[in-house]
Each structure stands twice: as structure tokens, then as C-alpha cells.
Design brief:
Layout: E1 9-14, H1 15-29, E2 33-37, H2 39-43, H3 47-56, E3 61-64, H4 67-75, E4 82-84, H5 93-98, E5 104-105, H6 108-118, E6 124-129, H7 144-153, E7 157-163, H8 175-194, E8 201-205, H9 207-212, E9 220-223, E10 246-251, E11 254-258, E12 263-264, E13 270-271, E14 276-281, E15 299-302, E16 305-308, E17 318-321, E18 333-340, E19 343-345, H10 347-354, H11 358-363, E20 371-374
Parallel strand pairs: 1-20, 2-3, 2-9, 3-4, 5-6, 6-7, 7-8, 8-9
Antiparallel strand pairs: 1-10, 10-18, 11-14, 12-13, 14-17, 15-16, 15-18, 18-19
Helix pairs in contact: 1-3
Bound molecules: pyridoxal-5'-phosphate (PLP).
Length: about 375
């Protein structure tokens, strides 16, 4: 059991894996720089630890969704460029400037708010986001030149970059839509240049595009999920495997033998087929283990073997069916995500069973689970 907490469950974060993944992205995407996306507390891994490891691995930029997330990085002493991926609220622009974050802008109101916060100060570098077809946030391509000119005319602002976001870069069958988006982006960049505007750094790629669409890399690739060791697309030939950085671990809290036919957990939906050792594990849906995982064949690793989750995952605990005469006892290590011996369970395995994506699994590991940061030389 870990010495610094009573709870025998934890998420282990492997910083060497983060560095390996970022180094791989840096090497393969060069001459584009890598921006490590560390929003949502580093996809559940811990933003500050990931940010530091990513910078060591060669990332030149960091990106977050919220002003608060950027300020938290600054408070921790992280001084690399930090891009805000959405336009900050007007009331937050002063804090954005004070923390030297790089806001993304895409409305005239946003440009005005940034200009008001910046006036009289050292220039505030901003990036302009254009909506080329994702239709979440971003300026209409037809408005890009006017917005860029407004930024250029504001004494306190400097246009440091122009970017877009791709909607289907992870869907092999949708390459033509990605090409359409990139074509619209190229057209906007052409319009800006024709109007005498320097668009600054150009960027469009998320992990999927950085891996598979060379023409999307421009000056910077904004990679999230690949930094954490998961690829949303088949890895291109020649890429070394990415290394999942998070493992979710626990210890058996109770093990007891139950007779064939006994039913386990709420609803009594799981019946033991044989006499079995049933192990209780102190992790539940309040920790981010989806309640439904048991109903879709979810497993855990105990003693180097796969053990089906027996019955409904409860809020704080789940049970594993270890089979007849299993040599399993209280205190044994349980792996929910990660490796044990030669076996591995990944967030992609859970996501496949649950019809979701690894992102949601990783971000869903709740704050209640202590993060234990590990490093390997
Ligand atoms: C604007 C933007 N860029 C980049 C990313 C990183 O995406 P991925 O984790 O697929 O690399 C995200 C994440 O959702 C995003 O919202």
C-alpha cells in the first residue's frame, strides 16, 4: 500500500512515457513545433507534471481550454508559451495579460476586450481562430481579414498566429472533409497575406492529423491524446509505439470463496458459474470506473490474469470473479488500466466496450483517485 494515503487505489502517471511520446511527435513532425495540450488537468494525468515532462520532451508550446488552467500553470512556475484554445470572457482579459497567456480570438467583441486589457502595456500576442468546418468556435472565414486588421490596428495587440481545428482527422473515411477544411484554411491565409497581414504561426493539426496528414502540420501541431500515449488513428509505418502514461491500480480489500450460483452486487445480475474466489476492489464509479463496464465484459488484472468484473460496479467498490481456488488474497495488486506481467488493459479497451473514446475514459478518472507521479531515468 502507498505510504502517504490510506486509500489503496491510485493512478500512476509515468513521466518517461510522456517524454517519449512528445519526443516521438517532435521527431516525426519536424520542422513543425509541438504544442502539448494539457487542458482538463492534462487529460486527467495532472497538468503541471505533464507540462513539465512535455517541455523536457521537446514541446515548444502548451495549450489549455480555460484561463484558470493557464493561470494554474503559471502559479506552478511553468513559463513556456500557453495558448488558450477558446476566446476568454471579456472580464478575464486582464488576468490573461497578467499571466502572459496567449488568447485565441474570433469575435470583434473579443478583439475589443483584449485590446482594452492590453492598451498601455507591452503588446499582448493573440492567435486568430478560423472556423473551417468544425462549427464549434472560430471566425467565419469571410470575417478573418477584418478581424486580423482590427488586431493589427489595436496598439496593444500583436497577431502571433492563425489557426483552425479539424473535425474528422481521426476518421479514415473522411479524408476529403479534412482536405476541404485545410483548403479553406489555406484560402484564409492567402487572403490575410493579400491584405498585407502577417498571419503569424499557422496551426491546424490535432494528434490524428499530426500523425497522418503531413500537409496539416504547418508551424505547430497541437497534440493531446498522443502525448498521453494513445493514437486515435492507426500509427503510421515507422512510428515507434506510443506509451500510455496512466495506469489505474488498487489492492484487493477482501477476498472470499462463494458457492456456484451465488449472485454478486446490486441487482444480483451476476451469478457465479462455479465455486469462486470473489475479490473486492476499492474503486467504483465515483472514481471514474463506469458503472456499465461490468455489463460489457470489463475485466481487471490480478495475479497476472484477467478476471471478469462480477456484477454492477458500485460507487466506491467493484468485485472481480477470480474463479475456483484462485490464489488471491487481500492486499494483492489489482490493475484496472495498465500492465501486470505480460497482460495489459488500456483506455482503448474500455472505450471499445463502452462505445466511447479513450479521451473520455482518461478525463473521467476522478479527483478522488490520488495521482502518483513516477519517473524512470
Ligand atoms: C482546439 C484543439 N486542438 C487540439 C486538441 C488536441 O486534440 P487531440 O487530443 O486529439 O490531439 C484539442 C482537443 O480536444 C482541441 O480542442
Amino acid at each position: 500500500m502507498r505510504g502517504d494515503a490510506w486509500r489503496a487505489s491510485w493512478a500512476e502517471i509515468d513521466l518517461a512515457a510522456i517524454r517519449h511520446n512528445v519526443r516521438t511527435l517532435v521527431e516525426r513532425c519536424t520542422p513543425a513545433d509541438v504544442c502539448a495540450v494539457v487542458k482538463a488537468d492534462g487529460y486527467g494525468h495532472g497538468a503541471v507534471a505533464v507540462a513539465r515532462a512535455a517541455l523536457k520532451g521537446g514541446a515548444a508550446w502548451l495549450a489549455v481550454a480555460l484561463v484558470e488552467e493557464g493561470i494554474a500553470l503559471r502559479h506552478a512556475g511553468v513559463d513556456a508559451p500557453v495558448l488558450l484554445l477558446a476566446e476568454p470572457p471579456a472580464a478575464a482579459m486582464g488576468a490573461v495579460r497578467a499571466a502572459a497567456l496567449t488568447p485565441t480570438l474570433y469575435t470583434t467583441a473579443g478583439v475589443a476586450a483584449a485590446a482594452a486589457a492590453a492598451s498601455g502595456q507591452a503588446p499582448l500576442t493573440v492567435h486568430l481562430k478560423v472556423d473551417t468546418g468544425m462549427h464549434r468556435v472560430g471566425a467565419d472565414p469571410a470575417d478573418a481579414v477584418a478581424l486580423a486588421q482590427a488586431i493589427g490596428e489595436a496598439p496593444g495587440l500583436r497577431l502571433g498566429g492563425t489557426w483552425t481545428h479539424l473535425a474528422v482527422a481521426d476518421e479514415a473515411g473522411q479524408a476529403s472533409y479534412t482536405a476541404t477544411q485545410l483548403g479553406r484554411f489555406d484560402a484564409v491565409v492567402g487572403d490575410l497575406r493579400a491584405a498585407g497581414v502577417d498571419p503569424g504561426l499557422l496551426h491546424a493539426a490535432n494528434s490524428a492529423a499530426a500523425l497522418t496528414v503531413a500537409s496539416s502540420r504547418f508551424d505547430l501541431v497541437r497534440c493531446g491524446i498522443a502525448v498521453y500515449g494513445y493514437s486515435p488513428v492507426a500509427l503510421p509505418d515507422g512510428w515507434p509505439p506510443l506509451q500510455p502514461a496512466l495506469s489505474l491500480r488498487s489492492r484487493v480489500s477482501l477476498a472470499r470463496s462463494l458457492a456456484a450460483g451465488e449472485r454478486v452486487s446490486y441487482g444480483l445480475r451476476y451469478a457465479l458459474k462455479t465455486d469462486s474466489v470473489v475479490a473486492t476492489v476499492p474503486l467504483g464509479y465515483a472514481d471514474g470506473v463506469p458503472r456499465r463496464l461490468s455489463a460489457v465484459g470489463g475485466e481487471v488484472l490480478i495475479g497476472g490474469r484477467r478476471r471478469p468484473i462480477a456484477g454492477t460496479v458500485t460507487m466506491d467498490q467493484l468485485m472481480a470473479d477470480c474463479g475456483p481456488e484462485a490464489d488471491v488474497a487481500a492486499g494483492d495488486e489489482v490493475v484496472l488500466l495498465g500492465r501486470q506481467g505480460d497482460k495489459e488493459i488500456t483506455a482503448d479497451d474500455w472505450a471499445g466496450r463502452l462505445d466511447t473514446i479513450a479521451y473520455e475514459i482518461l478525463c473521467g478518472i476522478s479527483k478522488r483517485v490520488p495521482r502518483v507521479v513516477r519517473d524512470r531515468a
